[in-house]
């Protein structure tokens, strides 16, 4: 069980290596598993000097001189020893042929010991330069102890002595450090104490043992918290983790305990007395820092026995004090070993004792009582305490804690139907701010089948189910059905019916028209008024603002939202409820503002959403807000590091069940991949958001229309670049029909690339009809993004009709709008389109120069953004005008033997791209790319594209 790499011990390693020189006394102190033996092993690597090692066995009746005899077993016995060394024949008979003859029996035991000590001293002196290592001297036998007292003052000049020990187990009769005071004056003395490893040390160790898996500082901190920095525990844990699949976290929060490590700990614990073991078991069951009286009670020890056992446990580092009267088990790993070693009946008995003592507190921790009740087999008490703990958590805004408690309580198989329904309702409400609702959705569906439920009870359960399906599970169409049924079942509960109705009022991807959504909102307002419950009115007001914002109605920003109260005031349950609603409103309005193009307003609402919600208790709000900020970075052209950040979030297991969040991240990553020249990756990513209905798994998430529209628009751009205008329109056709049927045209901004494809497909009449409906749909809305997109669409229609002046005016207007919103990528596209329009009118003086200037300006913006795909398209347009623009590869100066195009293609080939990928990126045919690659290889004198390499490192940008 030794580490392959000695980390965190540089100073100790230097000290130990000095022991290879004659005349040193080195004392190495460290707790069990601290790496004393591993450090001593350095002596074998540091010198050719003879190193003799012996171990003190942990026996109640130890063998006399056992470690010295073990060390001398492999010693090179020299010749010329005095007859005195014959006294060693009985101790090391394997060297009998090299030792002098046996001595006559001594007249007294003391004389025999004296002769033996003298003989051993002579033999050690005769060995020449030697290091004698005695390990674990806390278990030293009396004879070896007396030998050390005799040997140390007479330490041979060529001998170095190294002693390792556990200070917490050292007997008071043998103060090892006192030996240094009796050593000869010529002896150099070192004391080495091995402390636990730091997180930085563990990071280096984990990187060594888990290579090639990536290890982060967070992994190292988790390992440190689990093991306490004990080297043995860290090494064995890491070796076990190295065999796990690479898809799992490098170091989980609670790693498994490898069998060798578990058995080592159990063997180590057998060396402690019975009362101390009972205290450790009590601490393992209590599992949190506990008062010493509670530990004594659970361990069933009298105060005097408990006091002595606590002192021993602390001295041996098995328990740590967290304040003067509170203690906890040393590490979570040790707690796990102690707890899992308990027999089932003993474990239950200890949990009952813990339940009894903890329940006596004036304000008991019901979450702890629930756990102890469950483990003690007291099922009704478990349910009651879990519910009370969840209620308290909800009152304090700790929704995630409440969800955990209620989920656990609902796993009880024998739970009565009535209690099951009550707990499920509370779980549904608490889970609305969480990030994983699948388990709760299944559970609510199961509870809905319970016979004997009243219509109101069934309606409330169904409403909570519908809200979870709508938000976390992204199952909008299924959610709508549940919510509609819930409104009928809740006819006698206007407070709950209002919640279901206002949820139906928020536009989704169902075929309901905007007028239908408005009618649901009118019914929700009326039901809230009948309920006379201010909290219900606040919920309805939030959804009313959300409805108006989603359809671009400026009235959304004027609706009064719930008052979150003073930031630093101690919140009451009512204040916490208002804060939840205010945070929800802020998130919804930020989402709408991003879609509409009100980015400064989105920033403000995101700040409010994150400020008034806590990450641990409202992770859905926090994760959604973080993702919206990444979407803002995408539209604003803040791309450096954005791809890495989106990929990191997409890999996060926390977001695996937040389908709406992962869809937004996926589309952002796909947009970046396309712009930066990787259309194949973009298409793969977009297929996750817009899956093939024939092959997609069921049920597929019903992503929001704006997210699907962005994905469809990107796919339409890809199809257009490939010359397939019919496919480009097909990508957006279904969503255009949905937008038209609902009458929410502010959702159509990202569908314009597919709508423009109608013109190239010879369907100008359809395009003009869409333009008219689009314009009418925005009449009363304030949606800068949709208005700019519509202007761009109108410019494309004007150009197609030959109204080039009109087209140029509209493209300029669209560009100005995009720049006012801080959307540089879209502004550059509008400028590129205007430049192409200039080039389409060669009869006008200066048109060609204006077109080339516009293309150069667009190319400069694309290059600054890193939009390689778009840059390649513009360079191709410039070449058609006889203008050669240097490839914007971001690399150093190209090889002068190659043409600009050859250099560009060689660079992409060196990155591992195929001819087809390069062709898609640069808007060339694969055959043309193949020719350029062959020319580049010939000019560079290379045999294969595998021999290509980038001629210069990436620039700082």
Notes on the structure:
By secondary structure, this protein is mostly helical. The strands form 2 sheets. A 5-stranded parallel β-sheet has the order 2-3-4-1-5. It has a 3-stranded antiparallel β-sheet with strand order 6-8-7. Helix 19 packs parallel to helix 21, helix 22 packs antiparallel against helix 23 and helix 23 packs parallel to helix 25. The longest helix has 24 residues, at 573-596.
Structural class: mainly alpha
Give the radius of gyration.
Answer: 38 Å
Average per-residue pLDDT, rounded, comes to: 90
Say how many strands there are.
8
Q: Give unreliable regions as ranges.
A: 889-894, 950-957
List keywords for this structure.
8 strands; 957 residues; five-stranded parallel sheet; 5% strand; 43 helices; mainly alpha; three-stranded antiparallel sheet
In brief:
By secondary structure, the protein is mainly alpha-helical.
Explain the layout of strands and helices.
Elements (H helix, E strand, L loop, with lengths): L9 H9 L5 E7 L5 H5 L1 H5 L3 E6 L10 H7 L36 H18 L3 E6 L6 H10 L7 E7 L22 E7 L4 H11 L7 H11 L3 H12 L16 H11 L4 H13 L3 E2 H8 L3 H13 L3 E5 L2 E4 L2 H9 L3 H15 L7 H11 L2 H17 L3 H11 L7 H14 L7 H11 L6 H16 L5 H14 L4 H12 L8 H18 L2 H17 L22 H24 L2 H13 L7 H17 L6 H10 L7 H17 L3 H11 L15 H17 L3 H18 L9 H9 L3 H14 L6 H17 L3 H18 L2 H16 L7 H19 L2 H13 L19 H11 L4 H8 L3 H15 L17
Parallel strand pairs: 1-4, 1-5, 2-3, 3-4
Antiparallel strand pairs: 6-8, 7-8
Helix pairs in contact: 5-6, 7-8, 7-9, 11-12, 11-13, 11-14, 11-15, 12-13, 12-15, 15-16, 16-17, 17-18, 18-19, 19-20, 19-21, 20-21, 21-22, 21-23, 22-23, 23-24, 23-25, 24-25, 25-26, 26-27, 26-28, 27-28, 28-30, 29-30, 30-31, 30-32, 31-32, 32-33, 32-34, 33-34, 34-35, 34-36, 35-36, 36-37, 37-38, 38-39, ...
